[in-house]
Amino acid sequence: MQEIIQMSYICIFTELALKGKDIGAIVKAIFKGSPPSTPKGASRRLLLYQHCIPLCDSGDLQTEVASDILGLLMLETHNLPGPSLAQLASLFVDAIKTGKMGNGKSMELFPTVLTALASTEALSYGKGTKTSSKPIWQNKYVPLSPEELQFLVEKVLRMFLKLDLQEIPPLVYQLLLLAAKGCKKQVLEGIISYFTEQDLRQKEEQNNGEISDLEVQSVPEDQLRHVEGTAILHIVFAMRLDHELGREFLKSLKGSQGDLCPFSIALLLSVARIPRYEEQVFELLKGAISKDLKNEQLRHGSKFLQDLLPQRCSLAQMILDTVKNSVFGWDHVTQGLVQLGFILMDSFGPKAAPFGKTAAEGAIVTAKTPTQQACRLGGQVLLEGFKMHEPIRVEILEQVLNRLVTKTATPVTHFIELLSDIVVSAPMILLESSSKVTETFDHLSYLPLATVQGLLKAVQPLLKVSMSMKDALILVLRKAMFSSQLDGRKSALTGFLLLLKNFRVLGSLSSSQASQTISSSQVQVDVHSRYNSAANEAFCLEILSSLRRCLGQQADVRLMLYEGFHDVIRRNSQLASSIMQTLLSQLRRYYEPEQDLLPPVKLESCISAQGDQVFLQEPLSHLLSCTVHCLLWYQGMSQPNAGESDNDDDDEGGVQAELQSLLESITRRMIKCELEDFELDKSAEFSVVSSVGVKNSIYAVLVMGVYEVLMEYNFTKANYSKSVFEEVLELFKRYNKMAQILREKSGKGKSSKSPRSLLSIGFVSTLLTALFSVLMWRYTNIPCAVEDAGKEKRCSVSLLCLEGLLRIFSTCLLRYPARLVQLLSANDVSVGEDSHGPEKHSVTEKTSFYIRQFQRALFTQLSGVEEDFNSKEAQLLVNILSVLSRQLEPSSQQFGEVITWTVKVCKETSFEDAAFSKGLLSLLFSLHVLYKSPVSLLLELCQDIHSQLGDIDQDVEVEQQSHFAIVNMKTAAPATVSGLLVLSQVGRVLDEVDWLIAKKKGQLVPDKPSQAVRLSPDPTVLLLYHLRAGIG
């Protein structure tokens, strides 16, 4: 009877629910009238749950009604007794198994039931009693075999791909709880694998969208990143509680040989916030980055490896992707990014060489070695992090500036470059932390000069937008100008010269107008409205007045001033009059006005003595060089405006005329001078241990510098005048005579270092431009037989031409690789062969043309008899071919033609010249390894060497073979070049094979044999197959 009454109530309840009546009041009334402490009340409550759950899943109720019912049920779930909770849990499980969940609305109640069930102390249900009723993956008392646990984990992981993205974080959380029982590695790898696949899918959709202009993505990127961030937080929280999980995570990544992805990198950086894992994480990342860069370099240098290893996303790019992804609220990753960036820059930055010099002096623009690339990656991480994340900007700036101040014994050029990039990319953002930069200015007097120069050049754009920063710098520089330390005064001079160059007075030419050769690495911030021209002019004239005091200081300070004046006048042309007047006044002190007296300069006034020690007081040659360059620049800028002169230019014209007259007088009289006039003939002493010898050495360097400056001045002003060129040659003869004496005398002492040349790069460039065409024409048009037969071959003009060309090509490719076409196009040798007009040619086409020219020259050498063979010239030709061939694309037709030609020469040339053979075989190996596997080539060379030398067992008869004529008895011996080169190449191939086998084996999963079979066949068999194919 009671059951019939309850069923009638349920029918009424259902009808009201379907009609959308106020069902909440009825549910509350049933709960109030059914106390859970009584058996009848508990039974009625269970019956209500059992009826409402399928009712909500049926889809017959309005969404709001179903939500209200479930909400009320959730509130009372914790009051149900244990057996009732167990029955409800079984109800959900049976519905899931039989597929009777309907719309699944009631699943919102399932976690609440499980949580309440887990909180019961004891439970009698079914056949036994359980002391705890936690869900199976939380219950450590529920016995699960390893197979059952693995089955459960795999099944849950397979569910990932079927669930909505927003449902993943809760499932990750539950999986991590389950991992407490075991399968930690499988859980972590499954989670990482899922997000890796999502990242790849996201990238593919972005790439396809760029191609097909599709804007709709299956999963929005911001949604994916937020879910990834939440999952990372869950994992890190679990590792804080379960250290075994953290150790398993690091062990798994170490065992995978650095097989990382953006998600796992972000996870690693978040885990690094746990102190016990911090050092391990960054050591793992640093080692993985270094290894990946080295592997990529090895792969890039071998066609054999490129064929067997497909191109993949580099680890460096993954790290940069992680930085980009961190913008989606990944605050737990940003601190790790900052640490990683500085660790890379500290570990892989330039090191101090002996005697305090930089290991890589004359820095190359592009990072080529893995170490340089790792350092650059650290800078990119910090730069992108600075631009994206405001909370870490202050820390990044502080650490960069601290390293500039504290690392005085090691190079800091990479940190200066980073600071410069930050200023260029975000100057206004950096102004928010301008106080940090201002504090660094206080240390300028104690920093190395190179650091001061780099720092001030880096922050130069900020000085134009921040009056307070500029004023703070000026105050520091004025104090440093009166420092007792020489380095302090040089630092002050560096700062003042920088200010003069960048605070232009109205009417000054822009840097692009002043000289096409000037390229500023800083982005100019156009805020001239903040300053008026009158203030800039007064400011610059005040600085010039302060700098005149430097003319009475040590030679090093004066030299810096002279070297800086030329840059100032080019950038701030309105200061030309003041600067040239200052230089003229200074030059008069050392100029002999009497025209009949020789020499025309007062060398004795340029030195000072203190006891027995003699010092250079005035770098006269640098003063003259600065004067000449300023005068030539001013004359060049004045010619276009010659018709617009006014009274204000009279003073400048007078200074200009006087300087011209003075330089002409010095030139005329220096040509008349003999070395005896300077007391510097061959009988003079140049010993560094006596004051007389030191004085004569200083005199000799000054005289050579004056000759160099006068040569450049007169050559520039000559306008192709024969008489002036004759004067230049006379100046060079005297310069050369002085240089020979100094070289001979100094060579006997402790130091034989030549003095630094004062010829400007512009002048050298002008000479090289002319010489390049002359050398090419001279070498390709005048045969060696025309040369003086009495000269030694190594001193012939042909050799000098080739040496000059080799140096030009090598220097261009080392310093300015992007401007090779411009260099090659500057010569008109190709006009006769190319009749298509002045079209722009690719690097490959222009380089190929010059390669053919030198191939013809080498072929001419090899076509004669061996007695007439010039080994030195042939070696230079091979070196030039080697340099130029590196610029060809290995996949291009021209590259294949060069290899074919080189192989042909090696097969047909039988000259017994060890040095030439070494160069030619080196060229062959360096090209062939980029074209295809060198195994077949090495096999033939080994057979030739074997034929020439015989077998180690004298009773074995060796088949006579000759694939390459260049291998003969003289070049095939083990101690000679052919044998050693072949052995080294064989060793390289074997090293590549060992490396590749280890890498292929590392891609197999030993604990998953079924997957290993699917990944690839045995790597050793695969490699042997490719090697056999290479041998043919």
TrEMBL record:
One of its GO terms (molecular function) is DNA polymerase binding. One of its GO terms (biological process) is DNA repair. InterPro entries: FANCI, FANCI_HD1, FANCI_HD2, FANCI_S1, FANCI_S2, FANCI_S3, FANCI_S4. It comes from the Eukaryota. Residues 244-325, 511-742 form the FANCI helical domain. Residues 43-129, 142-239, 333-497, 768-924, 938-1010 form the FANCI solenoid domain. This is FA complementation group I. It comes from Esox lucius. The gene is FANCI.
